[in-house]
Specification:
The longest helix has 14 residues, at 52-65. This protein has a single domain, classed as 3-Layer(aba) Sandwich (Chemotaxis protein chec). The two termini are 29 Å apart. Strand 7 and strand 8 form a beta hairpin. It is globular. Strands 1-7-8-4-3-5 form a six-stranded antiparallel β-sheet. The chain has a two-stranded antiparallel ribbon with strand order 2-6. The protein is built from six helices and eight strands. It is of the alpha+beta class and 149 residues long.
């Protein structure tokens, strides 16, 4: 099982390829993962990158929780699953971001990888800094969420 954490800078090359951080790449290699699933997350203004097994679990959960027999459910599932893209990891440990993905996160050259546990995100530094809580708000909210009932 992979576990992604930490923040790491990256740079897109002229073709739009970016090297996956070594600590993430090692975990992917250990699991023999040569392809990832990518989806734009509007809340974070980031690309969320999943391993196939993690995405499969999220797919199962979505299918359990969303009623595909309703108009709303169909729209949710359609938008969710039509926004997914498979990306191959090349021999050098890079992934290629297409024009749409680069536009989604408004990035041309420099990116920031951020681990999210069972997946990681790719965004521009400003996106992460804008979305982060202050240290005090973070500590307070984390303490509140982790309280035992």
């Amino acid at each position: 099982m992979v576990f992604f954490f930490g923040k790491t800078d990256g740079k897109l090359d002229e073709k739009g390829r970016v090297v996956i951080p070594s600590q993430y790449r090692k975990q992917l290699a250990d699991e023999n993962i040569s392809q990832v699933i990518c989806r734009f997350d509007a809340h974070l203004c980031a690309l969320s990158v999943f391993t196939p097994s993690v995405w499969e679990e999220k797919f199962k959960l979505a299918k359990e929780k969303i009623d595909e027999n309703t108009a709303e459910g169909k729209k949710l599932l359609w938008q969710l699953f039509s926004s997914i893209e498979y990306i191959d990891i090349d021999a050098a440990g890079r992934i290629l971001l297409n024009k749409s993905q680069k536009n989604d996160i408004n990035v041309e050259k420099e990116v920031l990888f951020a681990g999210m546990g069972d997946f990681f995100t790719i965004t521009q530094k400003e996106n992460l800094q804008e979305k982060m809580l202050s240290e005090t708000d973070f500590e307070n909210l984390l303490s509140e969420k982790l309280k035992r009932n």
